[in-house]
Amino acid sequence: MTYKQIKWMILFIPTITVGLWEYVRHQFLLPYISMDVGNWLTPFIVYVVSVTLLNKLFHMLERIRRELEHERTAKAALEARENLAKELHDGIAQSLFLLSVKIDRLEKNKEQQSQHHDIYNIRKTVHEVNRYVRQAISNLRYDATSVNTLNLNEALDVEVQKIAKEVYVDIDVSWELQDEMLTPKEKIELLACIREAVLNIEKHADASKGWVQGEGDRNNWRVTIKDNGKGFEVDPFQLKDRYGLNIMKERAEEMNWELKLFRDNNLTHIVLTKESK
């Protein structure tokens, strides 16, 4: 039943009720009910109809009004998020990209060889901020209303599935680590590490298959990201141009997690582990 139909029913039901009552009263009940009794019964009948049928209609009307208000609020919030995402993309993200290009040119300048350490630190900062901004843009453009329909225990699993779908490599997700096992900060840092590892599979591994696995409890858990790519010949953490991996390592150290990178059975493994002391 629509909002308009309910309003018309609320307006007409009392009128129709009184009209039917008066017709029946004068046509069939006058020999049995006096005028005074009939006059007292009229408001009583209207009251009974009001507290039964009309009361339900008012509740329905209020519920529909709340739903419409919620939809308007959600739409306004999504429009604001989309506008903010556009401003971030058109402003900060593009500026960071141009700054990164300028750093590339500066780094290739032979006269600046003595400043390589400073250039590396600047490039690393730009790389990290750029990733944060793009992640913020993605989150802003994600429909936040759909999150409310998810079970809280599945929210982290859903985020990992989203990350796996962001790349063109086929990524299988096996996630048993429940959402409440991690603090909000741990979730943010862990998702950032998983996203970086998955992007590395697409960019550097030349892999056709990847896996993301999460298991454990609040005090002891392990997350493994692995792929069937070409692997590595030297320690990637020692390469200065692997900003993402070095940032991931710093995140793990800050959270007191153990981070391992190794090859096993022709698969490259990145393993993040939390163990209670």
From TrEMBL:
Catalytic activity: ATP + protein L-histidine = ADP + protein N-phospho-L-histidine
One GO cellular component term noted in the UniProt record for this chain: membrane
Keywords noted in UniProt: ATP-binding, Kinase, Membrane, Nucleotide-binding, Phosphoprotein, Transferase, Transmembrane, Transmembrane helix, Two-component regulatory system
EC number: 2.7.13.3
Histidine kinase/HSP90-like ATPase domain residues: 189-261
Superkingdom as given in the UniProt entry: Bacteria
Tagged with keyword Hydrolase: no
Domain Signal transduction histidine kinase subgroup 3 dimerisation and phosphoacceptor, residue spans: 81-141
Gene Ontology molecular function: ATP binding; phosphorelay sensor kinase activity; protein dimerization activity
Chain ranges passing through the membrane: 7-24, 40-58
Matching Pfam families: HATPase_c, HisKA_3
PANTHER family: NITRATE/NITRITE SENSOR PROTEIN NARX-RELATED, NITRATE_NITRITE SENSOR PROTEIN NARQ
Protein's name according to its UniProt entry: histidine kinase
